[in-house]
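thought: user wants a sequence for this fold. calling inverse folding tool.
action: design(structure=
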């Protein structure tokens, strides 16, 4: 196992993120699934220069991106988007994309269960065929019920993976597992060798170690199943707008350029544009919590 992180949680130059996490012991990055934001040649050079690597990317299924949409044109545009993310990861010499099939924040279905299942399976199969061409793996990620109605548990993600290919896997996230699964550890065991990635945030979605999740047991269960991928940091720190705020300086006062869609995506997660000091400390706390357990 090695320590990785997403970078979509704060709008800042990629070089700033990469050079910061390097000093804390991170080995790779799961880059934001926005191919238009990155020149892959320049990004590859940056990673080489810093001794880092691209582990993969997560699909940011925001706006009208939805593989389970009723509208065929919407599904086709989403397939094209996923293919572009896959191509980006391939050009960055990464290994994996984490696929969130339905729009994050959408909690109302477009059709019957039978209709939606056909739509999402067919669309994901098309994405998978492109993944095979470019040499990147796909892992289906379930989210909690407040972010999506369609895939919330490991068993559901495995059902889609099984319908697509034995070579399709799943990604689990400790924050979502804590909400949706009867037993976090049994869910990890259920994934078994189909577990391609594992995201980390505590039960309160702050950095691992700032909540009540049992990280020694979680990492121990991952070792039990022979998991050898990334533990990928994905804290989405909730912003307290009351006088009870424990971190009064957590919000960035002078944000760099960020698209309205990405800002909405972050704010829809209950977070905001985080200050550099707060963000850096969350990265450091995750490393302090997990690296000793991974040895």
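)
observation: tool returned 295 residues.
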């Amino acid at each position: 196992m090695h320590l990785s992180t997403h970078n979509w949680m704060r709008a800042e130059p990629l070089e700033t993120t990469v050079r910061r996490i390097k000093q804390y012991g991170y080995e790779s990055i799961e880059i934001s699934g926005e191919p238009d934001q990155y020149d892959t040649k320049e990004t590859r050079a940056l990673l080489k220069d810093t001794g880092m690597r691209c582990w993969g990317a997560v699909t940011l299924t925001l706006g009208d991106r939805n593989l389970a949409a009723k509208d065929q044109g919407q599904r086709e545009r989403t397939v094209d988007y996923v293919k572009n993310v896959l191509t980006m990861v391939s050009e960055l010499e990464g290994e994996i994309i984490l696929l969130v099939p339905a729009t994050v924040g959408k909690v109302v279905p477009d059709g019957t269960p039978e209709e939606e299942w056909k739509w999402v399976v067919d669309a994901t199969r098309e994405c998978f065929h492109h993944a095979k061409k470019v040499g990147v793996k796909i892992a289906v990620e379930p989210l909690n019920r407040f972010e999506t109605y369609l895939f919330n548990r490991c068993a559901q993600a495995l059902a889609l993976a099984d319908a697509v290919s034995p070579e399709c896997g799943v990604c689990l996230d400790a924050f979502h597992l804590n909400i949706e699964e009867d037993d976090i550890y049994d869910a990890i065991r259920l994934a078994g060798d189909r577990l391609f990635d594992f995201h980390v945030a505590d039960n309160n979605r702050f950095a691992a170690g700032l909540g009540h999740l049992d990280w020694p047991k979680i990492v121990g269960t991952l070792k039990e199943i022979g998991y050898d991928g990334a533990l990928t940091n994905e804290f989405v720190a909730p912003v307290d707008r009351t006088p009870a705020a424990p971190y009064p300086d957590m919000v960035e006062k002078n944000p760099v350029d960020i698209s309205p869609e990405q800002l909405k995506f972050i704010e829809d997660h209950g977070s905001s544009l985080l200050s550099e000091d707060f963000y850096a400390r969350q990265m450091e706390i995750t490393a302090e919590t997990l690296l000793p357990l991974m040895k």
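thought: summarizing for user.
answer: Here is the designed sequence. The chain has a mean pLDDT of 93.
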